Amino acid sequence: MTSISEMPEFTRLFIPPHQKSFFLFGPRGTGKSTWIRRHYPTARIVDLLAADTYNRLLARPQDLLNLVPGAATREGGPIVIDEVQKIPVLLDEVHRLIETRRLIFILTGSSARKLRRQGVNLLAGRALTRHFFPLTAAELGARFDLKECLQLGTLPGRFSESDPGEFLQSYVATYLREEVQQEGLTRNLGAFRRFLESATFSQAQPLVVSNVAHDAQVERKTVEEYFQILDDLMIGTTLPVFSRRAKRDLLKKSKFFFFDAGVYHALRPRGPLDSDTEVGGASFETLVFNELRALNSYKNFGYTFYFWRTKSRHEVDLVLYGERGLLAFEIKLSPRVRREDLAGLQEFKKDYPMARCFLLYTGDSPQHESGVEVLPAQAFFSGASEILEKGQAT
After folding, report:
1. Which of the listed residues 131, 152, 172 is the one where a domain comes to its end?
2. What is the pTM of this model?
3. Is 5 helix (H, G, I), strand (E, B) or coil?
4. Please, are residues 167 and 61 in contact by the beta-carbon 8 Å criterion?
5. For residue 145, what are the contacts with CB-CB under 8 A and spacing of at least 6?
6. Chain segment 160-213, per-residue pLDDT in tens
7. Pure H helices in the chain
8. Spatial distance between the Cα atoms of 374 and 270, rounded to a whole number of angstroms
9. Which residues partner with 258 through β-bridges?
10. 3-class secondary structure, 179
């Protein structure tokens, strides 16, 4: 794995709360620790991945301040606790120190599983919650290459590797070994690995749990638990159907995404019947989804994410709804726009005429077709933040 000193420098869009403790959640490898070390060079860091530190604080959480020289006052920067979910009870001590010493903490985590259990102290509002994501096109700047990112994703570490594919395979193996096996999230690692491969066929698709269970040869109830593990580890997420003022009979299933196109590719088995369009189309939708949700989080735009699909199979890939209005996106890995590509957005606009609708494609020319803004991929990735900020057309 790449060390922090070797990691390429990117200007991240994340803006931390000012003089306030906060949780910083995100999957491993998204750059949380690198950002903290560069943004807070004098921060006092408690790394719970270090065995000695973990064992000592597990036995005596009250030893926290003794592990960090000069931590008894706010001078010298915040106190960082890396992978805080490994010792949830430590949050009681953090709570006490925020109250009695007015110390500032940054609490990073790559899993919310233990912290979601009943009774865990989440500091009762004394620490805000923020999220970190893979790199956005805006953060990559000139290094953003659509074709490359469709295959390799945007985890920061892969940009410094001579063999990014090997890096991604190692990343997957690390998650299986350190997050799933060591944390005891499942007793059958082989079944979980089969589940991961089966789940890739649901990428950017409505999720049919029974199909995944059949393909993975795992009980349906176990598969449901596995999907919860992906959500807890923040490496998989689902979107509900948008149904406000629904006039139609809508699909009830959620839509599934792995969090990074490169991780999706590393997990997905390839067969002789797989088409580049099928796999690449899911990757393109993943890149767009992650770009939008990262910008939405970093800039606090306030949208909630959905998709839309009727039982008659009219579909819109992504729907964003919030105080700024209603946005709808159809995403096509194609250099040409066909009439049928616009059908889902046109049907959506019949139900929600106020919506601002976009068709994203890999061609070169921006267009307007029947109330739909047709955008080349490069134009979208260059202007995604402005689209979210402007919101619904008026």
Report:
1. 131
2. 0.91
3. helix
4. no
5. none
6. 999 999 999 999 988 887 778 777 777 788 899 999 999 999 999 999 999 999
7. 32-39, 51-59, 90-101, 137-140, 146-152, 164-174, 189-199, 209-216, 220-232, 261-267, 276-298, 343-351, 377-390
8. 31
9. 236
10. helix
Element counts in the chain: helices (H) and strands (E): 13, 14
Same domain, 124 and 149: no
Do 144 and 127 share a structural domain? no
The Cα 266–Cα 127 span in angstroms is 35
Domain that holds residue 375: 137-390
- Report d(CA 333, CA 279) in Å as an integer: 10
Indicate whether 121 and 151 sit together in one domain: no
Task: Name the nearest CA neighbour of 56 among 41, 44, 68.
Answer: 68
Residue 118 token pair: 């009943």
User: How do 128-131 and 22-25 pair as beta strands?
Assistant: parallel
Distances (CA, A) of 343 to 48, 174, 271, 306, 348: 51, 43, 31, 18, 9
What are the tokens at 150?
């469709």
The encoded tokens of residue 45 equal 């860091």
| Distance of alpha carbon 363 from alpha carbon 5, whole angstroms | 39
Angle between helices 377-390 and 276-298 (to 10 degrees): 30
Q: Which two tokens stand for residue 18?
A: 């000012």
Of 109, 131, 153, the one marking the end of a domain is 131
345 and 236 belong to one structural domain: yes
Identify the three-state secondary structure at position 362.
Answer: coil
What are 42-62's pLDDT values in tens digits?
A: 888 999 989 999 999 999 999
Q: What is the per-residue DSSP string for 330-347?
A: EE---SS--GGGGHHHHH
How far apart are alpha carbons 238 and 212 in whole angstroms? 15
Are residue 126 and residue 166 in the same domain, yes or no? Answer: no
Buried b (16+ CB within 10 A) or exposed e, 147-161: eebbbbbbbbbbbeb
Examine the domain organization and report whether 96 and 55 are in the same domain. yes
Nearest 5°: the CA angle 33, 37, 38 is 120
Question: What single-letter DSSP state applies at residue 240?
Answer: P
Distance of CA 339 to the CA centre of its chain: 32
Determine the Cα–Cα distance for residues 82 and 229; give it in Å rounded to an integer: 20
Q: What CATH number has the domain bearing residue 17?
A: 3.40.50.300
All residue ranges of the chain with pLDDT < 50 are: 1-5, 118
Please tell me whether residues 336 and 291 are part of one structural domain.
yes
